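Collaborator request, handled under Task 6.
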Amino acid sequence: RRRFAATGNTYQGSVLGMPFLATIEPANLRAIFTRIDDFSKSGRRIDWWPMLQGGILVADGHEWKTARGLLQPAFSRSKLARLDELEHHAQELIGKIPRDGGTVELQSLFLQFTFDAGLGLIVGQKHDQVSEFEKGEQTKLGKNMALALFEAGRRSKVGMLRLLDPVDKEKKVEEQKGGGEDGDEKEYIFFEELVHVTTDRIQLRWELSTAMAGARDTTGGLLAHIFWELARRPDVWAKLQADVDGLGLGEDKKPSYDDLKLGLVYLKAILNESLRMYPNIGITFRWAARDTTLPTGGGPDGKSPCFVPRGRRIITSFNALHHRKDLWGDDADEFRPERWLEELSQTQREEGTGRQKRFKLKSVPNWTYLPFGAGPRICPGQHFAMVEAQYLIVRIMQTFRRIECRDDRPYAEEAGIPITVKHGTLV
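Structure tokens returned to the collaborator:
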């Protein structure tokens, strides 16, 4: 952010003799994220990131289209509306929060919650199908997921595959039996469809690792940052409590998919503001697949088209983009959910859905807010992430009426995938 502030919204430089172009101009971002034949991700396949070398996050061309086509149905609206599995994992997490006022570190609980929920979505695992031993192994893998993504040692090569071995065998047995009872509608499971495309264990590792990293890490990081802020902002907590109470569910009734979709405007504003302030992915990379241009950033005034030679690395920073004061105002560095709210007119309230709402979410200019990326490669799981986060937050707010900060240290980020709170979320 400081470098962009000092040099402008598009600049060029080099690291260890390797030239790069960095930009946070919305017009350039639109070109980078929509012209996928010009701007590639394949330059990212580097030896020290073995778990992700062939997954959807770094694939291009036919390989990416195949992986995307397989993964997309796993996040269908019909699957998002099935909240029973989320309820089980939510209650498991809530049960670990002490009722005697003791301190709890929430970030690790959130990451485990999203890992467990992700397994159900990606490999079709239900909570009542897991033995105590397998659950223990699953917990260890969830805790060490970040390490596994960055190391090529025994854990990263064996851990994910060991977990998936019994899943693989079970799926093959089911296929041999014909896939269930006659007339049953077959549930779409990403892993089942993946083994129809490839049985190569290395490719399976790549695809499942990237899918699980996305399912676990991004939503876990989002929840950790939200509760880090809530613990320090009693005013925001009170407004959120009123928003949840407005659903009329009391302390025990589970929220429905419609509750999450049609209500909770202030909660959605909190989610948006957290993703603006603390984007899960701070920076992202592309490589020019051929000689090309960007709409702006060139010439003496920096407003002319900018030539980008083939092979040039391009860096974009969502963190810097989301903190631009010319786009977000002088308070861009402050956590203020209200920036996302727009008051409804009396006519709009009367024409509403029947739910009493004073506000709606405010739209922002295109290409200024990119928490899930954009263009053809936008995160396929973004809607699931928001449903998952909303559901857990509502269940926590139904259970606990107050929150207290137990850590007076200033915010510090832990760089990684995703960006997390360095010292955890202590409440």
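The cover message to the collaborator said: "Confidence is low (pLDDT under 50) at residues 44-52, 150-161, 171-184. The chain has one domain: 35-280+325-367+371-421. Please let us know whether this matches your experimental observations."
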